[in-house]
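Posting for a labmate who doesn't have an account.
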Amino acid sequence: MKQLFLKFRFFLIFSLLFSIQHKASNTIDFDAQYGAASGNILVKNITEAIHHATKGDVIYFKSKTYDFEGKSFTIDKGIVLCGIAPKVKQPHTIGAYEVVTTFKNLKAVRITTDDMGLENLRLQSDGSSAYVFTRFAHPSYGTGKNLGFYVNNHIKNVVYDGGGSQVYAENGAEVTFEQVSFLNYSNGGFNTNRKDPISTSAKAVFKKCTFVPNKDKVNYNVRGISADAGNDEYAEIWDQKGMVIDSCFFDGQGVAFSKCKNARITNNHFLGYRKDVDMIHIEEYSNAIYVANNTFEFISPSRCFFIDREGQPSYDISIVNNIFKGKYFWIFWSNGPTNLKFENNDLSQASASNPNDKTFDFNYQRTGDELPFPLPIEQLTIRNNKGLDNPEVGILSYTMLKGDNTNLIEGFATAKIQKKLVDEKPKSLLNTELVYQIKNKYSGEYLVAQKNDSKVILTSNTKNDQSDLWKISFKYPYSYTFLNLKTKQYLEIEKGYTLGELTNPNLKPVFIEQKNAYLNKSLKPHFYLHELDGENKQAFQIAPGGNERKTRLVKKDNQVGIEVALEKLKFIPATKNSVWDLVPVSNGYKK
């Protein structure tokens, strides 16, 4: 009797689970239920269909064309929107194939949910949106609070056609793109842009996708895939959680990481046409990037790897087992990365457009950059690469520290190597054994932190509680951190901002703060000290390091804000509000 009861209970549980599973995969025939419509009525019908659907349901669009007449819609539930399925599956095709159902004249799609899917659809922009076409709009983005992102989303056999940034995933979104074509975009295929103090992104996966931009609108800043940790002082390298870019095709486009780590770029095919578009762009302390088994093909002289930016060296980059074809403008332009491996690559089908140019350049500084010391490269490994002995290969140029034995370079003819030796690495401009007051040179006011307030203010008098004292530490190679002795917190600009915000008089000014101790963090908010010609050795303009020195600290009433600092990569002339004396104070105490 007991066994019979157990069997019956098992049958009930199994039946219930089967019923739930069956219900979760219910297919809704959109045309049959709602009929033909366009514009506002079409959006209303889709919204209603999503509202009445159960999580996991498939809303099936059986017609060839749906005209949105410049309207947008939102997916706010974990359902799948699906167009007419291909007659024959083609799992090996790169990009979308046999996509019959088109959402045309679509302004934008907002996704505000987990567990969402798009399949067998062409999403065709109406061209009215200059920026975002599809947005993963997590409510925490830009708030600094309850930070998160949407997860378990998939987009399969979909064509994005036109628009600015075709998929904008804000602080990140967990999405798998499989056989997706990103076509005719002007601002990027897939973009993330960290705007809040968040240390990790959600994992994005790209498999067998195609990226073909609107080539009339492409410039150096338009990428197929871009992960940008933002122009702020938040002291975390943005973990991409093992982002996968595999078996994709990039036609005149590339991949970019700024202040990011942990990504794999494998088995892709890159085509290059221009000297101002990188195939792989890695900058601002980015690290743990693995590039393997790709083909880099130069249709006309173009550039491949651009690594580092503004003296914030990237590191732990492996470039192995790749094939290079055609005439390149450069293979590497970089400024002193650490632990870069270039191994087992095949360059036998490639050559420099000008063999007398530096096409493996690890000393690169853009014209106008004002970095104070040459940056030696360490742990550079170049070996087992086929074709480097070809006389059509360009010059290898690098700087190394005398006596350093961490670099291993093989395969280049001696005449092709330009090596510069330096006696020492970049070093601090200050004695970091002392503590300092930060004083506006012309007003005579001191920078003071407050114990229970993130504000940093200026006062005319020195303090007796150490709130006007700062421990300055050197951040190799060119920047500094400022720790307040009283609050034990670091000077920073946590708010993300753009240059447009700084020059818009209607937006609130951005002020520096101190509110985080950054315990156990290897990277802390850092600043660049620009020495003033003819001034004493303690007078500087101070530029936030995390925003590429584009801004400088300036006195604004009794606070310190930021303003634009550079013009054509050179510091603009100092003003009374922008000059700061770093006044050493013996032993951290006054008198």
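Reply:
Got it, the structure tokens are right above this. The CA atoms of residues 401 and 422 lie 5 Å apart.
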